[in-house]
Amino acid sequence: MNESRRVMSTKTRSRTHGALTHGALTHGAVLSVCAGLAALCLSPPPRAETASANETVTIQSVANQSAANQIDQAQEPTAPRASGAVLVQSRLSEAQTLENRLLLRGVTQAARNVEVKAQTGGLVISRPLRKGAQVREGELLCEIDLGDRNAQLKQAQATLAKARADATASSTLSRKGYSTGVEVATDQAALAGAQAAIETIELDIERTRITAPFDGLLESDTAETGSLLLSGSTCATVIALNPIHVVGYAPERSIDQVSLGAPAHVRLITGRSFEAEVSFVARAADPATRTFLVEAIAPNTNGLVRDGMSAEMSIGLEDDQAHLLPHSVLTLDDDGRLGVRIVEREDGTSLARFVPVELLRDGADGVWLAGLPPRAEIITVGQEFVTDGARVSALPQGETRP
Predict the structure, then answer these.
(1) What is the pLDDT of residues 356-379, one digit of tens each?
(2) Please, are residues 393 and 401 in contact by the beta-carbon 8 Å criterion?
(3) Which long-range contacts (CB under 8 A, 24 or more apart) does 220-223 make?
(4) Is-contact 307 111, C-beta < 8 A?
(5) Lowest mean pLDDT among 29-33, 94-98, 185-189
(6) DSSP state of 211
(7) Would the pTM count as exceeding 0.70?
(8) Other CB atoms within 10 A of residue 12 CB
(9) What one-character-per-residue DSSP string does 3-49 give?
(10) DSSP per residue over 93-132, as a string?
């Protein structure tokens, strides 16, 4: 029995030494051979009188067969590869047009929103119009009682007639030498004052009728009949919703990209969306937020867009040429710059090159990167195991053997 163990151990060492000498013994083969030797070493020592020849033959044949199989598998030839080249996977990528947009949060605003106020005082004698009513430019909103204005007008007209007569008489006497120039000037001043008084009263009478300044909607009821309006009191609030304005605030770093006339897509909090056009870009920043006012305008003929609604405004910017790639291709160079590694062909040799990139947009389908050539072969697997200028053997993405 001991002699058999020595013979088997000698054969196993001989086969293992031969495999290592030829460089064909794999890690799995070494483990298997060691396991076989360990099994022999750990087997219980045979009892001199009871160990059977059959048990010795069985252990020896199993160990020899296991070691032989592993060594034969380790000596199988592998696929050829360029000397010194690192095996990687790559894919060809072409630049695409990336539509850039600036997203701003804002609010809708009526084109006009005016509180129509009284310019004279008195009691309201017109019937009120209810809020929500459509009004036309020049339509009567509130009418104030004339009171004694007509009497004041008649008195002013009488005063004007007397002043005109005095001025005519003084002028005649002055030509004949019976009146001085001072008297003539005094009468002419009185005449001008009487004319101005009439114009003032007529204007005050005209202001007793308060009309709509433009086509729009009543946002509040007009003044109730019998209520007292003083000069400066509100008669009604009128708004115009066509066109509708959308205002938002752009940050400092993005304001230079926004231009007048740029297209804007507006989405309201209700889900309604419509197209607009940038009509105003502020030149001065808000001192509190350091942001710039941006305003877009859009038609609202049906009046469905209301004043003061929360909105998202997506403004179209200049398009970029970029590559859409998976997140996994991104890597860092020794200086900490973000980039990708590509394959370059030089004199029939494939070399790995690091290219810094700019991250334009990140999404569920990948990242949009700028800074790459229009066509580039991107290393998708193995980029972390090559350095700039290293020789590579590139396989199409998805293949595992050259």
Answers:
(1) 999 988 888 899 999 999 999 999
(2) no
(3) 220/131, 221/128, 221/129, 221/130, 221/131, 222/126, 222/128, 222/129, 222/141, 222/142, 223/124, 223/128, 223/142
(4) no
(5) 29-33
(6) E
(7) no
(8) 20
(9) HHHHHHHHHHHHHHHHHHHTT---HHHHHHHHHHHHHHHHSPPPPTT
(10) EE-EEE--EEEEEEEEEEEEEEEEE-SS-EEB-SPPPPTT
Residue 325 · residue 94 · CB < 8 Å = no
The answer to whether the beta carbons of residues 101 and 317 sit under 8 Å apart is yes
Q: Bridge partners of 144?
A: 124
Four-residue CA torsion sign, 55, 60, 63, 69: negative
Q: Which residue is associated with the tokens 């890597």?
A: 331
CA dist 155 and 105 (Å) reads 61
169: helix, strand or coil? helix
CATH of the domain at 327: 2.40.420.20
Please indicate, yes or no, whether residues 146 and 185 belong to a single structural domain of this protein.
Answer: yes
Instruction: Domain of residue 280: give its range.
Output: 234-316
The CA–CA distances, whole Å, from 220 to 281, 282, 303, 317 equal: 32, 32, 17, 40
- Mean pLDDT check: name the lowest of 19-23, 144-148, 356-360: 19-23
Q: What are phi and psi of 163, to 5 degrees?
A: -65, -35
- The answer, yes or no, to whether residue 48 has pLDDT greater than 60, is no
**Which residue is listed with tokens 């009728």?**
209
Residues 283 and 337 in one domain: no
Domain co-membership, 273 together with 252: yes
Tokens of 244: 């509708």
133 and 215 in a single domain? The answer is yes
Residue with tokens 């396991």: 35
Longest distance between any two alpha carbons in the chain, whole Å:
176
Give me Rg for the CA atoms of the chain: 49
Place of tokens 């809708």: 108
The token pair that represents 176 in the structure block: 């004949």
Q: Token digits for 305?
A: 């867009």
- Count Cβ atoms within 10 A of the Cβ of residue 80 and give its class: 0-12 exposed, 13-18 middle, 19 or more buried: exposed
Strand 331-332 relative to strand 273-281, pairing? unpaired
Which residue do the tokens 């005094």 mark?
186
100-142 confidence digits (pLDDT tens): 889 999 999 999 999 999 999 999 999 999 999 999 999 999 9
